[in-house]
Amino acid sequence: MLTFDAVTLSQGTFQLTADFQLQADITAVIGPSGGGKSTLLAGIAGFFEPSKGRVLWDNQVLTGTSPAKRPVNMLFQDNNLFPHLTIQQNVGLGLRPDLRLTQDQKQMVADTLDHVGLTDLGARKPAALSGGQQSRAALARVLVSQRPLVLLDEPFAALGPAMKDDMLRLVRETLVQAGKSVVIVTHDPDDARRFADQVILVADGVAHAPVSSEEIFANPPPALRAYLG
Amino acid sequence: MARSPVAIISRTPANLAGALVLALTLGTLIAVAIRAEVGTGLSAADWAAIQFTMSQALVSALVSVLLAIPVARALARRSFWGRGALITLLGAPFILPVIVAVLGLLAVFGRGGILNDAFGSIGLPEVSIYGFHGVVLAHVFFNLPLATRFLLQGWLAIPAERFRLAASLNAPVGRLLEWPMLRAVVPGTFLVIFLICLTSFAVALTLGGGPKATTVELAIFQAIRFDFDLGRAALLACVQFVICAIAAVVAWKVTAVDGFGAGLDRVVQRWDGSKVWDFTWITAAALFLIVPLSMVVIKGIPGLFDLPPSVFAAAIRSIGVALVSAILCVGMALALALHGGRMVAIIGVLPLAASGLVVGTGLFLIVFPFVRPSDLALPVTALVNATLALPFALRSLSPAIDSVVADYGRLADQLGLTGWTRLRLLILPRIRRPMGFALGLAAALSMGDLGVIALFADQSGATLPLAMYRLMGAYQLEAAAGAGLLLVALSLLLFWICDRGGRVNADV
After folding, report:
1. Best residue in A93, A101, A151 to probe B by mutation, most B CBs within 10 Å?
2. A24-34+66-197+210-228 to CATH, choices 3.30.365.10, 3.30.360.10, 1.10.357.10, 3.40.50.300
3. Choice between B507 and B289, residue whose per-residue pLDDT is larger
4. ipTM score
5. Which site in A15, B11, B248, B438 is 20 to 30 Å from B92, CA atoms measured?
6. Are A124 and A86 in contact (CB under 8 A)?
7. How does residue B261 score in pLDDT terms, banded at 50, 70 and 90?
């Protein structure tokens, strides 16, 4: 369970407050651009420390620890793979950052690549893969790591609609299946409606407490109504 | 954005590199200041040296910039076959060993050179390349290309739309567009070249000399090597430092140009100017560069097969010094660039203001009581060369590292790539190109350096440029020309190997 304990994230004159608990398989974060969706994720991942309050995961205080020490994996809008490393190496980084993998770990990387549909592509470099395949490779890295919380900051935004749906299905089939909680930023309310269990609305400097996605779209609060137009 | 609470890469290497640069630049200055014998103050000869240093730098910079204006303008608005090659050639003098260029200039403008032969055949008196105008000529040879690149960048920074607008309005392009650009770019260019000419020891050593054409650096060299008057050398070193420091501070305030920039390969379409004049300028500038360089090759080939064994020994020493210096320089630049920050920026430009001869004099004074300076000639040369090349290496590596951090820093933080692992798996593979370039540049600069080595080396421990200088001094001109060709070939080869190494198989 992820807890925002009276958190304020400030950047210059911009402020975002969050004070709620979150427990769901897939949570969508929606809201107007510049509203602070990415800031909220950066606050969880440890790239941005709150000026007030604490972020906790299962009673473990995250605030003040480095991104690498948090139970969190994050995928960004781009640059999720190192172009100079092979797909195997990129995925292996999820197991050991110095890439000194045991035979078992190497097998695990290969199995995971099979699992996301990249069989036999492990020796290639990212540039030799399509955009969709690159996204799958990044998911494979998240999958091999032991961290329970996954943050997706619009990593599939550059893909076409069909490919994006494939990836969102793959997120549920692999990450959720493996017992991970997923928080995904999206600018498409339709994605939130179809793939998320809960929705966090970020608008006007507030990250609102999560509401089940059926409920929020059936009966949108004023802030969401303003955003949806 | 808040930084993560743990240090991602150790600060120790950067602190060590910073301390080394400070010790070599400011530390040696302290050593010099302590030993300086003010005594009777500066002699008439010293004042003459100061005056010569200033006046030759002033005239060299002025001539370089004035000639560069029409050449750069012609290059900016004319498109022709070989334009790209010519612009590349304009970058060559930067890594060309000074003494080799001097040899090429001697073959054209010296006694028995092409020019004097031509003058002689039509009954004109012989001109001498030695002294004031020789020093200026060599400085213009080196800095006209540099100034041209600076100004060309200024010209190409003017958007093409403005030229179109000016042409459609029939407005004066010169007053409207070019004059404001020149007013912004020329002062900085002038000062950078002025600074370079203040500290160009090898030119003064080979073409200057005598009471009328001795620079402060040359006077320092003579005080140590000929008179062994360390107190006077130290005093002169202080003078040289003050001159350089003032010029460097002024240059730093005024300069905003970067001659290494890319994008010089396009031509702006223009509707003004005379084609004939433009191509006259381009041809003249190209000949001024190409003829002396060709003479290095033509005169060098016969001597190449008849080189004394000492030249090969010197070549091997030079390669060793160049490699050590390049690795040290890039290692320091890497440590400093990874650390980043304001202090690093200051440390990075300090060596630009330092004179190799002042640093050398300081080191000479420090080691002299304990060991024979000649025993340390090669390590000291490698160390000083590495420090003097540091600003160029930093300028190449810093932006590259910054962009790696901007693109992949968060991902690496998240995955726990820290310390050596971060360097090995992320930074080094992604900065291969600029690192190869920096290594090549540092190696070539060190290979051709004739400065500190002249202070420290005895007869047996010379590097290739010093061996070549001694051959010239002994009037073994054919052997000197052969050594010169070997030197320039080795310098370019080292640069090419390093630069190429950074490009092959690099994943962008």
Report:
1. A93
2. 3.40.50.300
3. B289
4. 0.89
5. B248
6. yes
7. very low
